[in-house]
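In the design runs reported in the main text, the only information available to the sequence generator was the tokenized backbone. The following block is the verbatim input for one such run; it is reproduced so that readers can re-run the procedure and compare outputs position by position.
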């Protein structure tokens, strides 16, 4: 799919599935999307949608519709977004339940309605294990996008001021663990 094709596809989908109500967006095919597990991304402020190149057209089209569902709702994968995706599926848009809805539904099922320390701690451990230099800011941004609980990072930090404390604790534990592991490994080497 080329840039003009993607752009035309956006326009066609907007007419066909959104009643032409979505604002005008620029749609680009890009070779690289930093730190992103999805095949696309949206910047609602800049009215910009990026689709990752190198996938089959069907996959890129499903990604475009995923981003358009964000354009119609918000940046999260929570209730409003999921309802929009279900609506798209029910009106025959080219997405599938298995690939485009089920993974998000399953995630939703394991996400507690009220944010608990345990749940946040697990997420922080996962983030810090994957990238030890993760900052609180980057973590919160990622967490809000993935799990919701607030509309923005700033609102999230206001609602859950204890998060920074839990995050620092997890970082400290991870460092201590690394140190113990390094000590253990060096002892093993010098033991014989
Ligand atoms: Zn998304």
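Verbatim output:
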């Amino acid at each position: 799919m080329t840039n003009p094709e993607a752009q035309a596809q956006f326009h066609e989908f907007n007419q066909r599935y959104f009643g032409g109500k979505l604002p005008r967006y620029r749609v680009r095919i890009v070779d690289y999307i930093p730190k992103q597990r999805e095949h696309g991304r949206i910047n609602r402020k800049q009215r910009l949608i990026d689709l990752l190149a190198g996938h089959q057209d069907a996959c890129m089209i499903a990604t475009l519709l995923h981003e358009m569902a964000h354009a119609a709702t918000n940046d999260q994968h929570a209730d409003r977004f999921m309802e929009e995706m279900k609506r798209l599926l029910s009106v025959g848009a080219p997405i599938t339940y298995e690939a485009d809805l089920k993974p998000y539904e399953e995630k939703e099922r394991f996400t507690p309605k009220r944010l608990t320390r345990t749940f946040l701690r697990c997420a922080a451990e996962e983030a810090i294990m994957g990238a030890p230099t993760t900052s609180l800011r980057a973590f919160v941004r990622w967490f809000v996008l993935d799990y919701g609980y607030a509309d923005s990072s700033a609102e999230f930090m206001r609602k859950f001021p204890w998060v920074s404390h839990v995050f620092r604790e997890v970082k400290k534990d991870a460092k201590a663990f690394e140190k113990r592991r390094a000590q253990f490994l060096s002892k093993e080497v010098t033991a014989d």
